[in-house]
Amino acid sequence: MNSTDANCNGVRSLGSGGFTLLEIVIAIAVLSLLAGTIVPMVGSSMADSKKAQAQAEVKAIVEAIGRYRLDTGTYPAGPVLPNIPGIAFCLDPAALVPHYTRVLVSGQKKYLSKPSTVDPWGRAYMGEITTAAGAIADVWVMSYGPDGIEQTSWQQKNQGVAAGDDILAIFDL
């Protein structure tokens, strides 16, 4: 046996040039443990960043509608449902946000820098403008969150309280 061969116990002699099977197995185990720790952290931070993006966008939309209302004395013109006075939009809340964000980015005064019509999960933002007397929240805009399921009741929306993983912002005079 020359000096570059491993001895019978799997221990390298001085001057040998490779790794033993035991060293390779230990290196793979350490890398697996590191990957098992890092991958969930990366996934969690990506989910957190999507939630933060949705929170920022619903807040920006609601604030833009609110600034428009304070500047003009009225909400942007939009669809009104028959037989429901004071509800600017209710039947298909998915259509509200695209309509109003276009209005808010295209006037002489731009209330939004860009239209935000879909949440980070690719679903339409929902919203409603209520001008009826006694309404708790004049405007609400929300995302159904990562699971895409609405968990917030109408009463909770009007109180500005989101349920489950829903993301909500309101404006009230």
Largest sheet, strands/sense/barrel: 3 strands, antiparallel
Roughly how much helix do the residues carry, as a percent range? 40-55%
Mind telling me the CATH class? Alpha Beta
The fraction of residues assigned to DSSP E strands is 5-15%
- What is the number of independent domains? 1
**Structural category:** mainly alpha
Strand order of the largest sheet: 1-2-3
Task: Based on the coordinates given, report the CATH architecture.
Answer: 2-Layer Sandwich
Q: Can you give a write-up of this model?
A:
This protein has 173 residues and is mainly alpha-helical. It has one domain: 2-Layer Sandwich (Glycoprotein, Type 4 Pilin). 42% of the residues lie in helices and 8% in strands. The chain has three helices and three strands, in the order H-H-E-E-H-E. The chain has helices at 21-72, 93-106, 154-159; strands spanning 126-129, 139-143, 167-171. It has a three-stranded antiparallel beta sheet with strand order 1-2-3. Helix 1 packs across helix 2 (93-106). The longest helix is centred in the first third of the chain and has 52 residues, at 21-72. Residues 87-91 have low confidence and may be disordered.
Features:
mainly alpha, 3-stranded antiparallel β-sheet, 3 strands, elongated, 8% strand, Glycoprotein, Type 4 Pilin, 173 residues
Quick structural gist:
This protein has helices at 21-72, 93-106, 154-159; strands at 126-129, 139-143, 167-171. It is mostly helical.
Secondary structure layout plus pairing:
Layout: H1 21-72, H2 93-106, E1 126-129, E2 139-143, H3 154-159, E3 167-171
Antiparallel strand pairs: 1-2, 2-3
